[in-house]
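Annual report, structural modelling task.

Input specification for the S-adenosylmethionine complex:
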Amino acid sequence: MNDEFFSALIGALNQLETAVSDEATKKFGLYADMLIEKNKFLNLTAITNPQEVAVKHFADSLAVLSFIDIKPSAHVADVGTGAGFLGVPLLIARQDLNISLIDSTNKKLQFRKEACTHMGINPKIKHIRAEDAGKNPLYREKYDVVVSRAVADLKVLSEYCLPLVKPGGIFVSYKGEAEKELKEAKNAIAKLSGRAEATYEYELSDFGKKTLIIIRKISQTSPKYPRSSTQISKNPL
Ligand code: SAM
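The model returned the following structure:
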C-alpha cells in the first residue's frame, strides 16, 4: 500500500486518539492491498481510493475502541461484515478478542477466509442470517459486544443484533445521523430488552459526522424475538 494510505490512516487514528502497533498498521496495508486487488473481480467495496479505504474502512472500524473499553478476550460479533468491516480491523488491532464475522451472503466469504489466512488472524466466519443466529442456542445471548455498520435501519438492526448480546453486554451501531433512527427504534429496543445508553459523535478527516449508538442489553430477550426475516422486514417493531 502507498504512503498516502498510511498517512491518511495515521491522521484518522490520531483524530480518534487510538494507537495501533506497527505490526497492525502493516497488516491493514496488506488487507487493503488484497481488498483493492480482488475488488477488480469481485464486488467487495465501492470505496477503492487508498486514502478513503484507510479512513472509511480501517480507521472507522476502530472507532469503537476509542469510546468503549472492550475487555480482554471478549466475545464480539460483527453482524453484516461484508468484506470484513468492522471485524477484521478490530481483530488485527486487538488479537485477544474472540471475533465472529457474521454475514448472510456467501459472496464475500472466500475473500474473508483468504484474507484472514494471509493476515494470520483467525476469526470465526459464519455464513448465517443474523436473525437465524439469534434463534440458535449456539449464538443467542453469547456475545459481550455486537457491532454493525451499514446493514439496516436501527429498528430492524436491533432485532437482528440484540438477541445475540448477553444480558449486560452492548450492541454498538455505527450510523451517520443517530437522532431520527434512535427515535424510530425506541419501541423496538425496549421490546428486545435493550436500553439506549449513549451516543458518541466523531469525525474522520473531512468525511462528515459519524455516530456510535450504544445500546445496553438489560435482561434476556423474549423468546418471541427475533421473528422471521419476512416479519422483521414487513412489520418492523
Ligand atoms: N459492514 C460492512 C461495511 O460496513 O463495509 C458491509 C456492509 S454491506 C452494505 C451489508 C452487509 O450486510 C452485506 O454483506 C449483507 O450480506 C449483510 N446482511 C444484510 N442483512 C443481513 C442479515 N440479516 N444477517 C446477516 N448479514 C446481513
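The mean pLDDT is 95.
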